[in-house]
Amino acid sequence: METQVLILLCIAAFAAGFIDAVVGGGGLIQTPAGLILLPGHMVSTVIGTLKIPAFSGTAFAAAQYLKKVTMDWKLLGIMAVCAFVSAFAGSTLLTYVSNDFMKPLLLVILLLLAIYTFTKKNFGQHTAKQYSRKKSIVLAIGISLLVGFYDGFIGPGTGSFLVLGCIALLGFDFLHASANAKMVNLATNFGSICLFSLKGKIIWAIALPMAASNALGGWIGAKIAIKKGNGFIRIFFLIVVIGTLIRFAYDVFYTT
């Protein structure tokens, strides 16, 4: 592989790590870059390879959040286990069928999400909803299973959907939602990595340099997000959702 191609992939990985650390959605940059710059490889191989830098960046970002944000470890543990199993299942299904049929549905969901977040100025600005412990666990399991499967099966925007679920259903603010999303996203990435490793779908010579770049981006992004707080994360959330919306709109209307 040409050196300039690897450099471009590492630049994309750094940008993806930064965005993912703030509010998720780094796959919006990293996944298209990988598919464009590695046209000679199977899609499943490219996606499998990109899971390594995704995991690396998320891990470094999560480490920064854990230093500053209080976590509910029992609830988080349940979410992580569910997300791992669900992502493994989603990646398994991906090796057999196409995921293109879901893009029109995601387009509508993302449009509604962008409108809601923009119009509701207090969305994710403070901790809300106080559910019973049992109901919180049920909701957390639901979020983890759905988003975990989505990450294994499709991928881009997973972090954003996790943040949304933590805010809308569990009542977290943006900062706590981002912190929890990073930890759950680690589990989804690891579930997919296990599957792709078993299938021999990871190109380590590409994955490792990208992992270092993504980790650096994640480390910097998390530090800035923690320092700037909820307002900054909300703006980034909107930008990433709109960017993902444009990406899926392009896929739906121009590549089908």
From TrEMBL:
One GO cellular component term, please give it.
plasma membrane
Give a yes or no for keyword Disulfide bond in this entry: no
Subcellular location as annotated: Cell membrane
Would I find tRNA processing among this entry's keywords? no
Name the Pfam families on file. TauE
**Which family, according to UniProt?**
Belongs to the 4-toluene sulfonate uptake permease (TSUP) (TC 2.A.102) family.
Report the superkingdom from the record: Bacteria
Q: Mind telling me which InterPro entries this protein's record contains?
A: TM_pro_TauE-like, TSUP
Can you say what this protein is called?
Probable membrane transporter protein
* Species this chain originates from: Flavobacterium kingsejongi
Major place of localization?
Answer: membrane
Q: Where are the transmembrane segments?
A: 45-63, 75-95, 101-118, 138-155, 161-181, 202-226, 232-250
How is it placed in the membrane, per its record?
A: Multi-pass membrane protein
Keywords for this entry? Cell membrane, Membrane, Transmembrane, Transmembrane helix, Transport
